[in-house]
Each structure stands twice: as C-alpha cells, then as structure tokens.
Design brief:
Elements lengths: L1 E5 L2 H18 L4 E4 L6 H12 L9 E4 L1 E3 L10 H8 L11 E2 L8 H14 L5 E4 L21 E4 L2 H7 L12 E4 L2 H6 L2 E6 L5 H9 L17 E6 L10
Parallel strand pairs: 1-10, 2-3, 2-6, 3-5, 6-9, 9-10
Antiparallel strand pairs: 4-8, 7-8
The structure holds fructose -6-phosphate.
Fructose -6-phosphate (F6R) binds next to loops.
C-alpha cells in the first residue's frame, strides 16, 4: 500500500490522471472502475485535457461505474448516468457500448446487479478502480455495517450519506434512500485501486481506513489487505494520520 500526501486537490488530480493515463498507455483496452462525487471531478478534467491534447485515447477502454441511485431516471440531473456524461464521457472518445453503470431502475434489481458482476468478469475484471471515500468510510455505497458484502447489491443509504449528498439535490427529501453499488468483493478483485480523498472533513474516514482496525464499520479499511492500493490525499484529508 502506498500513501501520497499532496498540498492541493489539483496536484492529486494530476497524479491520479497520470496513473490512469499510464494504465491506458500500457494497456489501451484497460477496464476502468469509475467513481462519481465531487472528489474525482478535477481528475476527470485532467483526463479530458490529456485526451483533447491528443495524448490519451479511450477508444479501446471499458468502464464500470461503482454505483447509481435507485428510482431516478438515467437522464435525471442528479443521476450518476448524467454525472458521468457531463463530467467525462461526453468529452472523450470512449465507445458507448463499453460504458457500464448500474441500473437503478431495473425491475429486478438483484438480477440486474448479478448481471453487472458477470459483465465485469467477462470483461476480464477491473484493471484500475478509482475510489472516493464517504465521511463514514464508505467506498462505492458500501455503508458501515456488520459485514463486507461481496457482490453488486442494493443498499440503503445511511443518514450521513443522505446528508452529504443533499447538496446535489433541492432538499434532503429528494435524495434517494436506496442505491445499487458494486460490492466490496469486486472492488477488492480490481488489480489496482486508487483512492482519492480531499479536505479535512474526510480526515477521520481516512484515519480509520488507514490506521483503525480492518472492520465493516469503516468499509474502506478492507483496502489495507489489497496487494496494490494507492491513497492520494491532500493535507486536510491526511491531517489525522499519525504516520504517512
Ligand atoms: C461515488 C461513490 C462514493 C463517493 C463518496 C465521496 O461513486 O461511490 O463512495 O466516492 O461518497 O463522495 P465525494 O467525492 O462527493 O465526497
């Protein structure tokens, strides 16, 4: 496991985009695991700039997003389908048939989640999984609990997550209560994991992930058992670590 601490979120974005670009240059048909939320936006902007400068080609890459809300349509302004279009896909040359995002509107969510895991396996598994981290230590929408759930599944969002994500919606009432999320098993099976965290409000989650017990109460702590994981942090997110 490696931890790098940077001065600014912009530096993290450049470092993350450089690692993703290196992955694509080494293996143009890489399978990327992608995240949403505020944290990866500067990284996506850096990737878009690399693509627009002619340096980075996504045409052979495949992507699987971590999660989607249940019960909002893909074109809803707050859906993760829409987020990915707006923040990345509409600016790069990834082939639409290689883009995968969990279906939050499936009639049978369990069957659709199972098919999502199967699609990842048949694509050869995720080469590089990009992650953010929730204030409660969630990765994907794997919320604190008594177990690590292996496969893609429907989750009930915690009050902390609903509160944190209400900034994207008109009010807390409008935040969906459920989501479909990749499980911890698929995240852990990724060949490399890149976790980004910025801001002092993430410091406790980062501390528990890196220095607490490995426990489903802080889901990100499982990453410490992954053979190839890199944490890219800014000073705020690293501020409660005793060593790095
Ligand atoms: C997003 C996701 C979440 C976020 C986390 C942090 O696809 O799965 O785990 O990474 O909630 O969100 P931000 O970056 O908005 O603080």
């Amino acid at each position: 496991m490696q931890t790098h601490v940077f001065q600014t979120a912009q530096q993290i974005a450049k470092a993350a985009a450089t690692l993703i670009a290196a992955q694509l240059l080494r293996k143009p048909d890489s399978v990327l695991g992608l995240a949403t939320g505020s944290t990866p936006i500067p990284t996506y902007q850096a990737l878009i700039a690399m693509h627009q400068s002619g340096m980075l080609d996504f045409s052979r890459a495949t992507s699987f997003n971590l999660d989607e809300y249940v019960g909002i349509s893909p074109d809803h302004v707050c859906s993760y389908h829409r987020y990915m279009q707006d923040n990345l896909f509409s600016h790069i040359n990834m082939s639409p048939d290689r883009i995968h995002i969990p279906d939050g509107n499936a009639a049978d969510v369990a069957a659709s989640a199972k098919a999502y895991d199967a699609a990842i396996l048949s694509a050869g598994g995720i080469d590089l999984q990009l992650l953010g981290i929730g204030h409660n230590g969630h990765i994907g929408f794997n919320e604190p609990g008594h177990e690590f759930v292996y496969g893609c599944h429907q989750v009930q969002l915690s009050e902390t997550t609903i509160k944190a994500n209400q900034r994207f919606f008109d009010s807390a009432q409008d935040v969906p209560r459920f989501a479909v999320s990749l499980g911890i098993g698929s995240i852990m099976q990724s060949r490399q994991v890149l976790l980004l965290a910025t801001g002092e409000d993430k410091a406790e989650a980062v501390r528990m992930a890196l220095e607490g017990d490995v426990s489903p109460q802080w889901q990100a702590s499982i990453l410490r058992t992954h053979p190839d994981v890199i944490f890219l942090l800014d000073k705020g997110a690293a501020s409660r670590l005793t060593h790095w």
